[in-house]
Amino acid sequence: MGSELKGNRRAQVVVPGADSDGLSLPAKRGVGRPRSEASGNTILTVTLKLLGERGYGGLTIDEVVAQARVSKSTIYRRWPTKEELVVAAFDLLPKLKVPDRGSLIAEWVELARQYERALRQTPVASVVPALISEAAHNPALAQRIEVTFLRRRLPGRLIVTRAVARGELPVETDIELVSELFWAPLVQRAMFASNHMDTQVFRGMFEVIRAGIWDLHRRQSHARETTSAARRPAATPRASRSRSVTQS
User: Fold this and answer.
1) pLDDT tens digits, 115-136
2) Cβ atoms of residues 164 and 8 within 8 Å
3) Buried b (16+ CB within 10 A) or exposed e, 194-208
4) CB 174 within 8 A of CB 9
5) Model-level pTM greater than 0.85?
């Protein structure tokens, strides 16, 4: 944890669909959007299932067409590229939401519970590695999933932001950096040890992270105070000044 914990980063929220008078505008119909929402959901559900089973490389539009019982034109009107289709399917996965529990650790433990549940009940455990692997040599997909992954990390940033407001973390905490620190053990276990998603173990990890943040904060504060004191000119003792005046 060599980086200084400073410079809170705030996510910008864009509210679409409002005119200059502040009135809500009707949502525009997507170009070529399937007439049936059920049909669109079926396409995405099939895509997500195949992505988890075959990986990105093994996923074909032909198989999506066959299993969803739709035409290719229906798919391509809504999702012109495979990357767009896959990212839209990924967004079917449940989003994590953690209410304010008044405690940094309690909220991260709740997030860990929801994350573990998603690993058991959805194909996220196989879908995420497939997307990351493909994104390494597919710039179009990499750009799209980066935006999606950032959006899905918002609950973690919100937890850290609330903790700073409550005084559980230093005021100068870097929200993004610290959020990543708390996410790290969850993602590491999900990728490499998904059968060991123990929330009590995570609780211990979260406490260690919090303690480390405060320890770094104290050491940085001490270093700043020491540097500031060293730069101040040394004051001349009064007794020495008095002797100098008398001798003169």
Assistant:
1) 999 988 888 888 888 898 899 9
2) yes
3) eeebeeeebeebbee
4) yes
5) no
Query: Which of helix, strand or coil describes residue 81?
Result: coil
Fill in the DSSP letter of residue 94: P
Q: Residue 58 in contact with residue 136, Cβ under 8 Å?
A: no
Q: CA–CA distance from 71 to each of 43, 75, 101 (Å)?
A: 10, 7, 48
The C-alpha atoms of residue 84 and residue 31 are separated, in whole angstroms, by 14
CA distances for 188 relative to 16, 99, 146, 185, angstroms: 35, 24, 18, 5
Alpha carbon 81 to chain centroid, angstroms: 26
Domains, the chain, ranges and CATH?
A: 33-91 (1.10.10.60), 93-228 (1.10.357.10)
The answer to whether 109 and 205 are in contact (CB under 8 A) is no
- What CA–CA distance (Å, rounded) separates 221 from 223? 5
Biggest alpha carbon distance in the chain?
A: 106
Percent of the chain scoring above 90 in pLDDT: 56
Q: How far apart are CA 111 and CA 115, in angstroms?
A: 6
Q: How many CB atoms lie within 10 A of CB 59?
A: 23
d(CA 159, CA 146): 21
CA 236 and chain centroid, separation: 55
